Amino acid sequence: MIEDGGKETAMKVSLSVGNYAVRPFYMEGLGYHVYCAEELCYCLKENAFLLDADLMNDKLLGWLGQDCGLGELADELSVMVHKKGSLSAFVIRILEYVGFYDLETMREVEQTLKRGAGLSMLEKRKLRIDQLLDLRKFAAAQAEYDGLLRLWEETSSQGGAAGADLKARLLHNKGVALAGLMRYGQAARAFYQAYETDGSLESLRCYLAAKRMELEDKEYVAFAAGLPEYTETALQLEKDVELLNRRWTREADYQRLSVRQKFLHEDERGYEEENVHLMKSLKDAYRSMSA
């Protein structure tokens, strides 16, 4: 406790575990050098999607025991390594021993490791990029999907078992990211490439939806008319759009805009000022989303 003007204030103090190594440990596959147990824990947590059983090796045990002075931990982990224990148990024991993260965070890491068990490195990297998509970091996600698609092509050309289904999922999610950035033409191309790869009806539907957003109404009608083989999907899309429009009229934002439309006839200057503030907030939100 620390006294502050007669009041006692509780403070959480984190103590370093072990030594700060002179010789860093290089984490293969991640490209990081770590100098202490806390840095190791940070890399394990932040890159949980990318970890595999190669992490469980005598080189790491030797570094922990000799360079970090954590012989007790190294001995515990040695049993897991030589009895071929699970990766999740191995990583969680390190996190528990060092105490760098709370219980909830360690549970999240454990679930991440279990979900990634048996997945290829490409699939694990996709899961990590998918997190960016879930966080609406569309620009970063799109760039990462492009990089992973290039890696997929390299792996495939070298005879690796990359899997066409993985390529299709990468292309589809790239389309989602581009649509989030309102680059509907590019999104449509990505969705169509995904559809060509695995024939997914969801990718076809998203392709048509992106074209609908890209084109003017008359242009889209002409476009859809030229694709009779997709008529059923296009008709279902129109039903979905109609349903979304009806739902939109019940949203708070729609009600607010309706009120503002009436406000236009009563106070034109105030309406314009309100527009400026609204546009600024929308631009700020878009910049944050695209960062």
How does this model look, in words?
The protein has 291 residues and is mainly α. It folds into three domains: 92 residues, no CATH class; 111 residues, Serine Threonine Protein Phosphatase 5, Tetratricopeptide repeat (Alpha Horseshoe), CATH 1.25.40; 39 residues. The protein contains 14 helices and four strands. β3 and β4 form a beta hairpin. The two termini are 41 Å apart. 24% of the residues are buried. The N terminus is likely disordered.
Secondary structure topology:
Elements: E1 2-4, E2 7-9, E3 25-27, E4 32-34, H1 37-46, H2 58-67, H3 71-82, H4 87-98, H5 103-116, H6 121-134, H7 138-157, H8 164-180, H9 184-198, H10 201-214, H11 217-225, H12 231-248, H13 252-266, H14 268-290
Antiparallel strand pairs: 1-2, 3-4
Helix pairs in contact: 1-4, 2-3, 3-4, 4-5, 6-7, 6-8, 7-8, 8-9, 9-10, 13-14
For the biggest β-sheet, the strand order reads 1-2
Number of strand elements: 4
Q: Indicate the overall shape.
A: elongated
- The tally of structural domains comes to 3
Structural class: mainly alpha
Radius of gyration: 26 Å
Which parts are unreliable, with pLDDT below 50 for 5 consecutive residues or more? 1-13
Count every helix, treating DSSP H or I runs of 4 or more residues as helices. Answer: 14
CATH architecture of the largest domain: Alpha Horseshoe
Largest sheet: 2 strands, antiparallel
| Series of H and E elements | EEEEHHHHHHHHHHHHHH
> First CA to last CA: what distance?
41 Å
The CATH class assignment of the largest domain is Mainly Alpha
